[in-house]
Amino acid sequence: METKSVLLVDTFADEPLGGVPVPVVTDGATPDQLQTVAAEFGASGAVSLGEGFRYVERVPANNVVEAAVAGLTAGHDRNRADLGDQMSVLGSDGAERSYPVEHETGDVHVEVPSQSVDSVSVSFDRLAAVLGVEAAGLENVGRELPVSRSTAFGGTLFVPVGFLDDLSNCAPNRDALAAVLTETDTARVFAFTFDTVSRRADLHARVFDPSVEGCERPASGVATAGCGQYLEQHDAFEGGRETVSVECGRFIDRPATVETTLLAPVQVGGHGLTALETTLSLPEDDGDDIIEV
Fold first, then answer.
1. Which of 209, 203, 193 is nearest to 252 (CA)?
2. Main-chain phi, psi angles of 209, to 5 degrees
């Protein structure tokens, strides 16, 4: 058994226990150990800060931005100045990737590839039934901003919604949501409105994913980045903005804020809060041992 120091970082969090939690092992760990740590915390993956800055994905949630925010937040807490400006990612598909990262004035930003966004043919009536809202809440804004998708990072379906009241009433049907995502070759719905709670936010969003409990994630960095490019493509801000701030997670009590640039190179991110510091005893092999806390 090996004992490791672990921090649980709430990424994009507006307050403690908000945002997306990501565990960080503050020294080296094998990919199998990181997957075990992620499973213990019910997370999509885990970060290690050994020789280099690495994220190992347990399930294909594409939480690369969340991982970068968690890792650099933990590194800052531990006074680690040696993490560099690249994050290595071992995906659940076995592929290795690398992303440029930076930590400045408390915020972490990740450079992600540009996403191609195309409109899709899904009726407002069907989407309304899937999301559990009135079709009128989608139709008005949908005339100017069509329902669209990006196939990058597993795929995101972008659904503009008229008002915050409409968005707050969304209660997706899991099976219907999964069906429309399969048909559009996407993994998540990014439903958003320009009607916000905070005056500092430009959008309010909800991220619906049938693979998670309650069908909703607090936030998605890659989906936010894609939405920024979608909005730029449709000139939603009439050329007057370079970045947008997106509030999310509020309807599942994990409030978060994600920021993204609209133009390439796309940088997306936010800040993190360390919620927990603990030690775990990890199995040395890649077996099915249970972590002892």
1. 209
2. -145, 115
Give the C-alpha separation, 38 to 47, whole Å.
9
The torsion angle over the Cα atoms of residues 225, 229, 234 and 237, rounded to 10 degrees, is 70
Residues, the chain:
293
Q: Count CB neighbours of 9 within 10 A.
A: 27
> Is 0.85 topped by the overall pTM?
yes
Token match 């049938």: residue?
Answer: 210
**Do 2-112+272-282 and 117-263 fold alike per CATH?**
yes
Beta carbons of 209 and 187 less than 8 angstroms apart: yes
Integer Cα distance of 204 and 250 in angstroms: 9
**Domain coordinates in residue numbering, the chain:** 2-112+272-282, 117-263
Pairing of strands 107-112, 203-208: unpaired
DSSP annotation of 284: S
Check whether 287 has a pLDDT greater than 70.
no
SS3 string of 41-63? HCCCEEEECCCCCEEEECCCCCC
* Residue reference for tokens 């972008």: 158
CATH number of the domain located at residue range(s) 117-263 in this protein: 3.10.310.10
What CA–CA distance (Å, rounded) separates 3 from 45? 19
Nearest to 9 by CA among 51, 50, 52, 38: 38
Average pLDDT over residues 74-85: 89
| Cα–Cα dist 24/55, whole Å | 9
| Predicted confidence (pLDDT) per residue in 117-137, tens digit | 999 999 999 999 999 999 999
Query: Biggest alpha carbon distance in the chain?
Result: 59
Q: Which CATH class is domain 2-112+272-282?
A: alpha beta
